[in-house]
Amino acid sequence: MDTVGHRMKPFVTIVLVICIYLPGSDSIGMYGKSVRFPAKTANSFVRLHAPDFPSLTAFTVCFRAASEETHPYSLFSYATSISDNELLIWQESKTELWLEFHDQDTKFDLPEMNALLRHICVTWESQEGEITVWVNGRRSVRKFGGKGRVVKGPGAFILGQEQDSVGGGFDINQSFAGEISDVHMWDHVLQPNDIKTVSQGCLRYGGNIIDWGSTHYTFQGIVAIGGNKDCPL
């Protein structure tokens, strides 16, 4: 064959990469995403695989949440082999948010939880036992509990269910239906200006215990993980 005057066409290789998320698989971070629980179940949850810690004398937990449910449900559950409610943030009714740890409950009466996403932060420190809830950057009245105590580790962090044992013991009547995103946890109390900043938009950095953008997670059951279009960054 006469190839004079003809150029060989370059050979092009096209590589198609498809990422598939399977229930139970270990994935990294959910920056710009939210978790949706479409219905109450006894087996749908997300587990956040935060690094182990020996104990905490203070913490800040922040997240965005929305739910139209009227029954009590867990928003944030941390259990250890010693205590299944080592740290529990619990919505008792549409207007009552409870913090439970060391078998002690602290109730806060807040604006009604509904279908509109709201930003919630809960802070606690051991020295004085001061507990504060922040909603969309606005502070609640300060309350007191757990003075001199510690939050122990290691344990399991679960979204969508209340744990009666580490990583299990779920009850459909205590399950969450709705949307959760931007979950972060620090080992100290954030300053008021920092909490207001956190509440104003999705972070490119996060908590030093749980960071929504980098913490490994697994999930089971009926859980949808998708883009959070409300994130301004």
Question: How is this structure best summarized?
Answer:
With about 230 residues, this protein is mainly beta. Helix content is about 5%, strand content about 40%.
Describe the model.
- The protein has 233 residues and is mainly beta.
- The protein has a single domain (29-227), classed as Sandwich (Jelly Rolls).
- It is built from one helix and 19 strands.
- The protein has one helix spanning 192-199, and strands spanning 27-28, 33-37, 45-49, 55-56, 58-66, 73-79, 87-93, 96-101, 104-109, 118-125, 130-135, 138-139, 143-144, 151-152, 156-159, 178-186, 210-211, 216-220, 224-227.
- Strands 2, 5, 10, 11, 12, 13, 16, 17 and 19 form a nine-stranded antiparallel sheet that branches.
- β10 (118-125) and β11 (130-135) form a beta hairpin.
- The longest helix has 8 residues, at 192-199.
- It is globular, with a radius of gyration of 21 Å.
- Residues 1-22 have low confidence and may be disordered.
Keywords:
single chain, mainly beta, Jelly Rolls, eight-stranded antiparallel beta sheet, 19 strands, 3% helix, globular
Fold topology:
Blueprint: E1 27-28, E2 33-37, E3 45-49, E4 55-56, E5 58-66, E6 73-79, E7 87-93, E8 96-101, E9 104-109, E10 118-125, E11 130-135, E12 138-139, E13 143-144, E14 151-152, E15 156-159, E16 178-186, H1 192-199, E17 210-211, E18 216-220, E19 224-227
Antiparallel strand pairs: 1-18, 2-16, 2-19, 3-15, 3-18, 4-14, 5-10, 5-16, 6-7, 6-15, 7-8, 8-9, 10-11, 11-12, 11-13, 16-17
